């Protein structure tokens, strides 16, 4: 990951925000001047003077409107980019050494109803025609839907239902990351081994961690997100749960 490029991008957005604020101040000054000119335009003035002031007032209003539009555009762009950059997938490119098992591919047929799986925490197999929205879950959805999410390239973080809040906050943060049409889900799961803090899965991929480590989980997400056998564009999937 090129940290210098990321820093330059952040600096550019900050400069753009300051420019927007400066232009906004100029717009406010313009509106104040326009208001004063309008106030000076009274009945005691001659017709030519009134017309001149009216023209000046209109000019300052147009200038102020233009400055306001520029200010809103600059600050809006900066804030949107800053918000998007907060969850840029590049932030998860820790390149940490991780141990990942490649699981058997049990297929990807669709079928309604309850299903049985060969693996305790399945990473493939026949699944529900319906998938789930990305995000943090306080109750575990059925594996039937979770496997469907894996098919679309989503990452699932399985945690113990009684995990401490500090850990849950770290996991919840990771569920905001998306790329293309894939995202991250976190679910409580009694099937997580007692000696593991989290189990992270992708399609036919499993990583078990004795202790949660953001660098390891981030690296797993970065490497395996959107690598499922059926990828759907973001403008179609819209955060998951659309099938």
From TrEMBL:
GO cellular component, one term: cytoplasm
Family annotation (InterPro entries): DUF3105 (IPR021454)
Transmembrane segments: 15-38, 59-80
The keyword Lipid biosynthesis appears for this protein: no
Superkingdom, natural source: Bacteria
Keywords for the protein's UniProt record, in alphabetical order: Membrane, Transmembrane, Transmembrane helix
PANTHER family hit by this protein: TUMOR PROTEIN P53-INDUCIBLE PROTEIN 13
Protein name: DUF3105 domain-containing protein
